[in-house]
Design goal:
It is a single chain. This protein is of the alpha/beta class and 280 residues long. It has a domain of 139 residues: Cytidine Deaminase, domain 2, CATH 3.40.140.10. Helices cover 29% and strands 30% of the residues. The strands form three sheets. It has a six-stranded mixed beta sheet, sandwiched between helices. Strand 9, helix 7 and strand 10 form a beta-alpha-beta unit. Helix 1 packs across helix 6, helix 1 packs across helix 7 and helix 6 runs parallel beside helix 7.
């Protein structure tokens, strides 16, 4: 199976001194996700937690909502390299009997591969109509700015592979009291979130209605979508959100926090869940 890291030769220049040495890089390989034997999506990911990644992706697509929706997840035995060795880069998810199979179209394949999303109102409507766990129906989570401020450092401390490569995104789930529940790393921020959500699905923990999702980069529409589809009420990012992510948060009741850096943050939507000390 593919490794999380690989070694490559690098020429280092430091203060005018030149040396050759091996360097540790994060591995990146394609993963094809098949649904009931039919190709559905291809994503570039860091190998590891592939079954969780596939399950989490299908949660965000509205296909899965519970562990019982899945009959099996396996690596395809026929996906081999030139020497007949399994590449472990093709995963097939078989739905349980009675679980509806979505229409698999080229548009969805392009959307997944490019990770660009389908722009505008159609995207918002699609999430609103397929979400299984309406955030507005859950008891409200109440967080203090001080609790949120401490989460990025805790995420960073848990990034074991990043320390060796410097080339990974991370996503973490925290409880409403700040307990670190799970953390995943990947070359793709959307893959890291899918791995978190997929693990929660397989453990029977969806919806994540009392959790906070923290991502190490920006908050795109796609990440907001994944939070909503998993029933997560709060999404925080250390960088900026996109305009469509803010629109989706406002539409669905998601609390969206950006530029979370120390005690500073911007609350773009759902400020009722943040115990702010002063009114605006």
């Amino acid at each position: 199976m593919g490794r999380v890291t690989e070694r490559r030769r690098v020429i280092r220049v430091r203060d005018g001194a030149v040396s050759a040495r091996p360097d540790t890089l994060v591995a990146e390989e394609p993963l094809e996700i098949r649904l009931n034997g039919k190709p559905l999506a291809i994503t570039m990911r860091t190998p590891g937690d592939d079954f969780a990644l596939a399950a989490g992706f299908l949660v965000s697509e509205g296909v899965l909502a519970a562990a019982d929706d899945v009959q099996s997840i396996v690596y395809c035995a026929g996906a081999t390299d030139g020497g007949g060795v399994n590449t472990y880069n093709v995963v097939d998810v078989k739905l349980a009997p009675g679980v509806p199979v979505p229409d698999i179209t080229l548009e969805r394949n392009v959307y997944t591969t490019s990770s660009c999303g389908l722009c505008g109102k159609a995207s918002l409507d699609a999430v609103r109509t397929t979400a299984r766990f309406p955030i507005s129906d859950t008891p409200p989570v109440r967080l203090t700015p001080e609790l949120l401020a401490g989460l990025p450092d805790r995420l960073r401390a848990a990034q074991q592979v990043f320390d060796r490569t410097g080339g990974l995104h991370a996503a973490a789930l925290f409880s409403e009291t700040g307990e670190l529940l799970d953390v995943r790393e990947d070359v793709g921020r959307h893959n890291a979130v899918d791995k978190l959500v997929g693990r929660a699905l397989r453990d029977g923990r969806l919806p994540l209605s009392r959790a906070v999702l923290l991502v190490s980069g920006r908050a795109s529409f796609e990440l907001a979508q994944k939070a909503v589809m998993a029933g997560i009420p709060v999404l925080a990012a250390v960088s900026a959100p996109s305009s469509l992510a803010v629109d989706l948060a406002a539409e669905t009741g998601l609390t969206l926090v950006g530029f979370l850096r120390g005690p500073n943050m911007n609350v773009y939507a759902g400020d009722e869940r943040i115990a702010l000390h002063s009114g605006v």
